[in-house]
């Protein structure tokens, strides 16, 4: 009689992994999902107050949307085609770009120079740094009233000073280029100090060892500024340019308050200083109440800001790359 033996090893009972406790599960959940919960309020608010109005504005721009009417028929891209052939719209675009260039370029250059001064060892540095922000916290209405008096044709101080050097009086509100200069001066006075503090904060993050090494090598203050400060401020300069582009192309309050009268939204009798936002307001609200056409203007303004901001960033990067190549030589 044959006996068959089973040579296989005995089966070990499976090791049972203990179930994680509730505290461990909560800790894992907190580590994995809590960052998303922390940032969710921002995206929720951005979606409600940013994305939704943008999409809704585009939807309205596809309709003949009279604010005083009950029906809003769909017209497709008719508002955009009409807008591209509107000479008043292109007139406002030229005004906006002109004021933007005259105000933004000197503003950022002056802010960079002012920040460099405030970054030095000065007496009462905190006082000076706080003082440059005073124009920004001043009421825009008060600033507009003061500058409207300064640039008055008959009794303005600017024309009084020009008269002392033999220059005839300038009608700052009726002359197109003169109105650009007057409004740009108002904008520069308000925002130069704000940008200077942004540049100053970035300058204080630059290691002092770089300046000490440059001084030992015999570099002057000017050479240190252009070879050390400006290249290391490139990200901050790009940020300031983008913010200034957005604000400069959306200019409304300063030119609106600079022009007085019953129809100041036109920016003068011949629209000398009417910006795109003023033209948008004129069409979307009183006196035309054409909300669809105004929404089309808003979307083209959005596209204009995106294009100009992209061009500015590309130019800054190209200039920065060229400067690095020259330094390497």
Question: Can you describe what's shown?
Answer:
Helix content is 69%, strand content 0%. With 329 residues, the chain is mainly alpha-helical. The chain has a single domain (78-328), classed as MetI-like (MetI-like fold, Orthogonal Bundle), CATH 1.10.3720. It is flat, with a radius of gyration of 30 Å. It starts with 21 loop residues before the first helix and ends with a helix. The mean pLDDT is 86.
Task: Tell me roughly what share of residues is in helical segments.
Answer: 55-70%
CATH topology: MetI-like fold
Number of domains: 1
- Beta percentage is under 5%
What's the tally of helices? 14
Assigned CATH superfamily: MetI-like
Span from first to last CA?
Answer: 99 Å
In the CATH hierarchy, what is the architecture at level 2? Orthogonal Bundle
Give the uncertain stretches in residue-range form. Answer: none
Shape: flat
Report the count of strand segments: 0
Given the helix and strand composition, which structural class is it? mainly alpha
On the 0 to 100 scale, the average pLDDT is 86
Specify Rg, calculated over alpha carbons.
Answer: 30 Å
For the record, the CATH class is: Mainly Alpha
Major β-sheet annotation:
none
Give the SSE order as H and E letters: HHHHHHHHHHHHHH
């Amino acid at each position: 009689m044959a006996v068959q033996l089973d040579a296989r090893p005995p089966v070990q009972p499976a090791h049972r992994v203990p179930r994680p406790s509730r505290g461990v599960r909560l800790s894992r959940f907190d580590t994995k999902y809590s960052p998303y919960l922390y940032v969710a309020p921002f995206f929720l608010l951005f979606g409600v107050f940013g994305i939704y109005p943008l999409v809704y504005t585009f939807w309205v721009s596809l309709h003949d949307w009279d604010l005083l009417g009950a029906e809003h028929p769909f017209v497709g891209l008719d508002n955009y085609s009409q807008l591209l052939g509107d000479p008043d719209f292109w007139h406002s675009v030229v005004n906006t770009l002109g004021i933007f260039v005259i105000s933004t370029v000197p503003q950022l250059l002056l802010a960079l120079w002012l920040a460099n001064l405030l970054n030095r060892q000065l007496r009462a540095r905190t006082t000076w740094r706080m003082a440059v922000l005073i124009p920004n916290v001043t009421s825009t209405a008060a600033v507009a009233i003061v500058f409207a008096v300064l640039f008055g044709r008959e009794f303005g101080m600017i024309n009084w000073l020009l008269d002392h050097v033999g220059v005839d009086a300038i009608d700052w509100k009726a002359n197109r280029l003169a109105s650009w200069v007057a409004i740009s001066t108002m904008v520069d006075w308000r925002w130069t100090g704000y940008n200077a503090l942004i540049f100053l904060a970035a300058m204080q993050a630059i290691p002092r060892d770089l300046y000490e090494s440059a001084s030992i090598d015999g570099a002057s203050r000017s050479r240190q500024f252009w070879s050390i400060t400006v290249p290391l401020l490139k990200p901050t300069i790009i940020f300031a340019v983008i913010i200034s582009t957005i604000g400069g192309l959306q200019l409304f309050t300063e030119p609106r308050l600079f022009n007085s009268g019953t129809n100041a939204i036109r920016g003068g009798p011949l629209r000398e200083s009417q910006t795109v936002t003023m033209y948008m307001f004129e069409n979307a609200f009183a006196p035309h109440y054409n909300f669809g056409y105004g929404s089309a203007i808003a979307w083209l303004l959005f596209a204009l800001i995106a294009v100009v901001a992209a061009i500015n960033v590309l130019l800054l990067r190209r200039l920065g790359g060229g400067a690095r190549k020259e330094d390497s030589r």
